[in-house]
Inverse folding.
């Protein structure tokens, strides 16, 4: 019988859905004794190395897991399930891994030897290039495709790793082991359960593989890729809310107004689950659900939204992000619910990442206040002293349990036109043609003010401050929206996006304003304003909902510009 080990962190529901889709039955490991019953074992998950090892030790799994692997029965590790096989990790010095493989896990660098910048985490679709051996007893897996990665730490590849390294991946100028195979152990750094048809095929091949004895092997062909970045990601976004009849619908507006100008009804663009499945089949690299009225209520009471996510995860095998309401809440009876509890409910329902909006703004404001209280006042949250970072923000809570890669911060800014940009907001200053009605094309200056509550409330913090503060507090990705460009079809606000990307070392999703396929190629183009960093992903909603632009057309435009995209799905 196939068993799946759930150590308590990450979207293990996606793996369960994948196994069900493939027709394989399985059992959950519910006690250490279950490992004695398993004929095959999969250990999936995300999060930190230390958190995983502590959980295994606390729940009594560490030694039984070592014994299981030593018994020769098939083991498959996914992401953290691969990293714990190693002796130790730079992520948590002093914490020992399972020690199955005598190597160390280290952090990616955000800058290579030639000064080129790249984001950390490594997030997106990359290739796993197999090594060629004189003989092998590995499963007959076809790695000639892109797979989904999301990790900040890697196992460096070395030429003497033939006994356990099976495939490698290149991120920038850093080459790392992305597939391990030694005897009965097979493990991937990427997430096959989130890698579309290619990932499902890999899972199926491993389950059907007949285990054979370990064979000594030699590498006969090893061809490194050279400098490589992941494909540029196209993200389909679904803004979800209740309509006036109480049904969950996908909607889309202009400048965040989702009601028709005539009768005032909420615009209904379709049913969320059906649209998500359509976008998966059409090749979306990720899908985001944004619960755009969640600031009004506690998400833990929003059972329709959790059910929606659960149903979507059963048919969509690419990453799912859920946004809205990820914050500390208190029930009417006084029962508190920390942001981590809300995130946990979303992850259990099938989300891979959670997006935090307004509470990220409040957390960065508090970070700046604490810096001032400590006598270290600054306008740059990244420069706040260590005593101002106290682990109590939603980003820090979720990062500690699930890792930075699970935390997205959504930034909702609008332009503030002015004669002179205030000194405290100089990091987000921009200039160029005025876009206001009646002043189009005139020279203008502005800065980007952040908002909360769906753009309804302005705050005295700018987009770059929020981006740098969010990264300081543990966010692993930023979604850069624009109230001014939302629904306009005029293209992404590249000045805003470049200001943010040039100021942080985490991945950025460009959002708001796409009106044609070329706009995707435009936002991914190399620009000096980013400091040499690339834009990792671009998101759209309305143009996909209304069939004005096909996802395949957006990808073709990006490919024609000379950048890699994932075409098979």
């Amino acid at each position: 019988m196939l068993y799946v080990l759930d150590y308590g962190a990450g979207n293990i529901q996606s793996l369960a859905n994948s196994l069900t889709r493939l027709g394989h039955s399985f059992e959950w490991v519910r006690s250490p004794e279950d490992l004695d019953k398993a004929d095959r074992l999969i250990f999936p998950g995300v999060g930190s190395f230390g958190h995983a090892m502590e959980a295994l030790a606390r729940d009594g799994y560490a030694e039984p897991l070592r014994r299981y692997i030593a018994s020769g029965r098939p083991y498959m590790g996914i992401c953290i399930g691969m990293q714990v096989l190693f002796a130790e990790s730079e992520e948590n010095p002093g914490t020992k891994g399972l020690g199955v493989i005598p190597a160390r896990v280290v952090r990616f660098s955000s800058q290579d030897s030639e000064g080129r910048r790249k984001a950390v985490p490594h997030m997106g679709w990359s290739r796993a290039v197999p090594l060629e051996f004189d003989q092998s007893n590995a499963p007959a897996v076809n790695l000639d495709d892109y797979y989904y990665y999301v990790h900040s730490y890697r196992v460096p590849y070395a030429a003497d790793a033939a006994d356990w390294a099976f495939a490698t991946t290149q991120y920038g100028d850093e080459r790392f082991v992305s597939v391990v195979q030694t005897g009965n152990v097979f493990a991937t750094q990427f997430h096959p359960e989130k890698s579309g048809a290619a990932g499902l095929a890999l899972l199926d091949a491993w389950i059907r593989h007949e285990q054979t004895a370990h064979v000594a092997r030699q590498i006969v062909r090893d061809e490194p890729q050279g400098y490589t970045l992941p494909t540029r990601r196209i993200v389909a976004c679904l803004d979800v809310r209740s309509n006036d009849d109480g049904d969950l619908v996908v909607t889309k507006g202009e400048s965040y107004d989702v009601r028709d100008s005539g009768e005032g009804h909420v615009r209904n663009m379709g049913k969320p689950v059906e649209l998500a499945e359509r976008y998966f089949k059409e090749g979306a690299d990720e899908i985001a659900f944004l619960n755009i009225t969640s600031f009004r209520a506690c998400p833990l009471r929003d059972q329709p939204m959790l059910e929606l996510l659960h149903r979507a995860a059963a048919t969509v095998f690419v990453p799912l992000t859920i946004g809205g309401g990820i914050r500390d809440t208190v029930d009417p009876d006084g029962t508190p619910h920390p942001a981590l509890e809300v995130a946990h409910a979303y992850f259990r329902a099938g989300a891979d990442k959670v997006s935090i909006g307004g509470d990220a703004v409040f957390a960065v404001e508090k970070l700046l206040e604490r810096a001032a209280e400590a006598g270290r006042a600054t306008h740059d949250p990244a420069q706040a002293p260590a005593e101002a970072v106290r682990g109590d923000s939603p980003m820090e809570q979720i990062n500690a349990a699930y890792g930075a890669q699970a935390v997205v911060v959504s930034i909702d800014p609008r332009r503030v036109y002015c004669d002179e940009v205030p000194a405290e907001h100089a990091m987000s200053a921009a200039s160029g043609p005025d876009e206001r009605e009646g002043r189009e094309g005139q020279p203008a200056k502005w800065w980007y003010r952040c908002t909360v509550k769906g753009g309804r409330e302005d705050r005295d913090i700018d987009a770059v401050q929020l981006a740098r503060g969010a990264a300081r507090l543990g966010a692993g990705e930023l979604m850069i929206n624009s109230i001014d460009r939302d629904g306009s079809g005029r293209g992404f606000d590249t000045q805003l996006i470049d200001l943010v990307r040039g100021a942080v070392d985490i991945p950025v999703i460009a959002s708001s304003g796409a009106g044609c396929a070329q706009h995707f190629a435009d936002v991914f183009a190399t620009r000096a304003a980013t400091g040499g960093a690339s834009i990792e992903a671009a998101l759209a909603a309305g143009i996909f909902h209304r069939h004005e632009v096909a996802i395949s057309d957006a990808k073709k435009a990006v490919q024609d510009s000379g950048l890699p995209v994932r075409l098979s799905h």
Remarks:
- Confidence is low (pLDDT under 50) at residues 253-269.
- The first helix runs from residue 12 to 22.
- The two ends are 30 Å apart (CA to CA).
